[in-house]
From TrEMBL:
Highest taxon, organism lineage: Bacteria
Species of the source: Massilia rubra
Domain 5'-3' exonuclease: 2-256
Phylogenetic placement of the source organism: Bacteria, Pseudomonadati, Pseudomonadota, Betaproteobacteria, Burkholderiales
GO function terms (MF aspect): exonuclease activity
Annotated CDD domains: H3TH_53EXO (cd09898), PIN_53EXO (cd09859)
Record's protein name: 5'-3' exonuclease
The entry's keywords: DNA-binding, Exonuclease, Hydrolase, Nuclease
Length: 258
């Protein structure tokens, strides 16, 4: 059986870069990317994958921006020094035997979601996602595991339940209810993680919550009814697109240890 390692490239690169307190510069970008390359090598050595999907955001508008123009409008752009250095970094990854996927119109999360679900559906073996991104933890419901490279810990079904208060299959509904300030996903006003988890565990899923919202004589019920359209828009925004045309074969993503 094989082992797929899906790496959320910018999740590693941006965290390494932002961990340094120095002002933006070409030198800072160079140092950060050297550390990021070391992180990639450690991931490959630690997990021993047979296949690697190294996904990066292409940049520019995506299908989520078309759906909701304010998506990620508050997020700071990537520092220009780092952006300019990325093509050279991708070339180094290619030198390590990796095939970098960076597709216009979609995010790296969508690329990873598509690849991981396809791999698991075809029964090719285990799938590991190297990322700290909340959205990607929903893949645990389908049999994947998430590896936090920075903390050196596994995230599984029990971890998600302990962290978010719901099962992995309800994570999308939870994020839709509570929203995501980082990505500009609106969610429902004044609904945080605990309230969202309580609603989902009581009713079963988001559709069931909304079916019961009509009889909820509480401020939360009023907001759910009033913000129904925003809520379902939020669910679309946080849900992974899993039918991306990746343009690669498994043979192209095969990885051999040198």
């Amino acid at each position: 059986m094989g082992k797929l390692l899906a790496i959320d490239g910018l999740n590693i690169v941006r965290r390494v870069y932002e961990a340094s307190p120095e002002p933006d510069s070409a030198e800072k970008a160079d140092i950060a990317l050297r550390h990021a390359l070391s992180s990639f090598r450690k991931l490959l050595g630690a997990h021993g994958p047979t296949h690697v999907l190294a996904a990066f955001d292409h940049g520019g508008p995506t299908w989520r921006h078309a759906l909701y123009p304010r998506y990620r409008e508050q997020r700071a752009p990537m520092p220009s020094f780092l952006r300019d250095a990325l093509p050279g970094f991708h070339a180094k990854l290619a030198g390590e035997g990796l095939h970098v996927l960076m597709l216009p119109g979609v995010e790296a999360d969508d690329v990873i979601g598509t690849g991981v679900l396809r791999w698991l559906a075809e029964g090719r073996g285990e799938a590991i996602v190297a990322s700290t991104d909340k959205d990607l933890h929903g893949l645990i419901a389908h049999g994947a595991l998430v590896w936090d490279h920075f903390k050196g810990e596994w995230h599984d079904d029990a971890w998600v339940r302990n962290k978010f208060g719901v099962a992995p299959e309800l994570l999308v509904d939870l994020l839709a209810l509570m929203g995501d300030v980082t990505d500009g996903v609106p969610g429902v006003s004044k609904v945080g993680m605990k309230t969202a988890a309580k609603l989902l565990n009581a009713y079963g899923n988001l559709d069931a919550v909304m079916a019961g919202a009509g009889i909820l004589k509480t401020p939360v019920g009023e907001r759910l009814r009033a913000e129904r359209e925003v809520l379902y828009l939020s669910r679309q925004l946080v849900q992974l697109k899993t039918d991306v045309r990746l343009g690669v074969t498994w043979n192209m993503l095969a990885f051999e240890t040198f």
